Design the sequence.
């Protein structure tokens, strides 16, 4: 029988509940949707790579304001969009309404999804589950809710890429809790195979997303105001330390070639990951009474009429 993925390497025991609620506050800070909207292309590319078919049941985990959810709904899939920040789900709902797409929005913790085993044909998470404090548990949840033969589609920033390095810079100024696994570990082939390889066929494609802003200063202003982890890092520092962090972040941008016109166009490396689930992939969860299946109404509907 297949075994669940091995526990995350942690030097010290983690108080996961406290960390989880702090992370929730972090992602609720600023307004991630402003940055999220710029990343729409990643969700579209992932859904193409998954070769979604009309009527497939798709779960978007840690969906933010719904990039991958919208992309899947445009393929006539039956989409449930989840996140643990209600305001981001509301932002996703507004986008779906504007595009006249039908999507269900539900609050959910990626590490305790409120759905039954094998409920979905496809589970996706674009730069989402990589931020959970217990990666093995998050991976198990994706595998559990996906039917055998179904697919899991992920995008994860790499440690050496622009966003992986952004987190390294921020971590030098505001150290994370000891023992918390780095989100960028999800951006390595070895960790992905460790998490999913025993229960699915893992295909990994390196890709780039280009962060385009009017200037490096403009990028910094947007991330400082709206991107929760950067917003919170600045908010917790005194002015001289804020200036040092700002200088290091602008220094990071300088590591990539600049267009000659003063604008910023930094390619950020990420991995596009597709896991095709094997028979017997699901590790049933025994403890959660809230789990449920989709209603007939949710499973028979094309959002494009
Ligand atoms: C970088 S954003 C990505 C959002 C979206 N998938 C996208 O591509 O724009 C990370 C998201 O993960 C969500 N998140 C982080 N940890 C989570 C958890 N344990 N459960 C649910 N959502 C989580 C945050 O609220 C945030 O919306």
Sequence:
């Amino acid at each position: 029988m297949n075994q669940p993925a091995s526990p995350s390497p942690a030097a010290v025991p983690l108080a996961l509940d406290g960390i989880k609620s702090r992370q929730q506050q972090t992602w609720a800070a600023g307004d991630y949707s402003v940055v999220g909207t710029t990343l729409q292309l990643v969700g579209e590319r992932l859904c193409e790579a998954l070769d979604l078919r009309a009527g497939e049941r798709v779960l978007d985990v840690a969906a933010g304001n719904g990039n991958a959810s919208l992309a899947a709904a445009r393929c006539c899939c039956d989409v449930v969009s989840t996140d643990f920040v209600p305001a981001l789900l509301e932002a996703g709902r507004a986008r779906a309404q504007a595009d006249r797409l039908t999507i269900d929005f539900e609050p959910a913790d990626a590490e305790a999804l409120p759905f039954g085993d094998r409920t979905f044909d496809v589970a996706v998470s674009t730069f989402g589950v990589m931020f959970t404090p217990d990666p093995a548990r998050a991976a198990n949840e994706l595998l559990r809710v996906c039917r055998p033969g179904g697919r899991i589609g992920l995008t994860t920033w790499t440690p050496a890429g622009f966003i992986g390095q952004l987190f390294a810079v921020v971590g030098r100024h505001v150290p994370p809790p000891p023992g918390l696994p780095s989100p960028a570990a999800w951006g390595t082939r070895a960790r992905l195979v460790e998490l999913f390889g025993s229960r699915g066929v893992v295909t990994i494609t390196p890709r780039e997303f280009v962060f385009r802003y009017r200037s490096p200063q403009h990028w910094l202003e947007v991330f400082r105001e709206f991107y929760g982890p950067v917003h919170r890092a600045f908010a917790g520092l005194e002015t001289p330390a804020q200036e040092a962090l700002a200088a290091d972040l602008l220094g990071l941008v300088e590591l990539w070639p600049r267009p000659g016109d003063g604008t910023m166009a930094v390619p950020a490396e990420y991995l596009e990951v597709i896991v095709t689930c094997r028979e017997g992939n699901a590790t049933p969860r025994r403890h959660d009474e809230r789990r449920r299946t989709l209603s007939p109404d949710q499973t028979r509907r094309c959002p494009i009429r």
